[in-house]
Amino acid sequence: MPDISKYEFIIESTPQAFSNISKELSLRAYKRIYFKDELFKFFPYGELYVNDKLASIVDRLFFVEGLRFKIKLGAETLNEKQFGYLENEYVWSEGQIVGIEIADQLAGDNALVLTGVQKIYDNRSSRVWPNSKLSDAVRDIVIKDYKIQETNTAGEKKIFITTTSGLDDRYQMYISDRDFIEQSCEHAFDTNNPKSPFYTFINCNGEFYYMSLGDLFSQATVADFELKLADDNAVDLNLIKGIDVLFGGLPVNLENYAVRNFKTSTSGITTFIDKEIKDQYEKLDSNGLFTTQTETVNFQKPVSSINSFGLYEDSDYYNFQAFNNYKYVDTALSYRITIVTNFNPKTVTGKLVNLKIKKDINGELQYSPEFSNKWLIVKSEHFMDLEGAPFTRLTLSRPSVVVDDEHILKSSFQKS
Q: Which of 114, 197, 269, 299 is the most exposed place for a label (fewest CB within 10 A)?
């Protein structure tokens, strides 16, 4: 391995069947190593394309779905600095043989499709957590069913859960753990971040997240990246090697531009609440907290959608607020950019990165307020090919974009 790459790829299987084969393989035997996690996809995903000219995998391992893997990609040190590994447990989800050449035996590229190991523990259950917070029920599932502990053996935190508000009986009615956790996000409310929807996923480092948007943005950044020309872009871990801007806009936000919500109390009184996007999502200041300024779109229709929240009782306060927030789960993160960087095992979904991107402001290159500062990773992809030089592609988002005084709609972006 060291002769073609500074990085290690370590794979162990349970039972040891693939571990024994992998010891016989050089790094060049892996045509493609790929791992992915997403904010809106619960389990992490992976692909290994193994050039199996000797048909070892076909002979000994084919049709072994559910085979468990511990996988590490990275290095202890890089450029004489501490580096680390992208490290997680997976199960063999699907198998394919592609690129088969006509010969006397069946041999080709084995494509191992992987999913997070928690998938095999994701069973249906019927149970209740009496007079409990939603966050407590979720934590109970993650530790007991998914077997994820608060910290790993190295002392690194592995469970990130925002404490929810309100006590109630929490029922899991013969649905899978994943379905219960994902559906509960619609009911989760955080009084410390009263305008924040909740998001849940497991990333490529085996970290479980069930957090409000505000708490996600209150984390410390794990990396800094800068867009600039440089001669050493192949080794500089802080350089942006490619960038695309992907602001979502109309298709994502149409039903949320100007919303009328209404609720009916048990006494028969109906209350209407009108809201625009700028009332819901506010820009982030340098500390990652919500402030009173925001951006929005000049929308001419008085109402773009009407929503009924049904019968409302005093005890439903947190539920009502959570329903309202969850309507904006996509809108809150419709501002997106993608960047390509050298491989960084710390940059996985749920983490924050700091960007430095310049633009021309009054004839002078300055850091752009629209694109610089904190961004949340909502999707991370990590690749390695035959060259042995891994790289990372990140999709980044945040609920608002700061604009400078030159923007033609600056006054519209401010709250009155």
A: 269
- DSSP-derived secondary structure letter, 408: T
Nearest to 106 by CA among 47, 56, 49, 63: 56
Q: Where are the alpha helices (DSSP H) in 167-234?
A: 177-184, 213-216
Tokens of 255: 């039903």
- Mean pLDDT confidence for 189-194: 92
Pair of tokens at residue 187 = 């009911």
**Residue whose C-alpha is closest to residue 110's, from 154, 51, 194, 156:** 51
| Residue pLDDT, tens place only, 133-175 | 999 999 999 999 999 999 988 889 999 999 999 888 999 999 9
Instruction: Encode 259-290: b = buried (16+ Cβ within 10 Å), e = exposed.
Output: bebebeeeeeeeeeeebbbbebbbbbeeebeb
Distance CA 397, CA 249 (A): 13
Owner of token pair 């006397």: 104
Q: How confident is the model at residue 222 (pLDDT cuts 50, 70, 90)?
A: very high
- Grouping H, G, I as helix, E, B as strand and the rest as coil, residue 135 is helix
Strand residue runs (E) in 53-154: 68-78, 81-98, 108-116, 124-132
How does pLDDT run across 326-352, given as a tens digit for each residue?
988 988 888 889 999 999 999 999 999
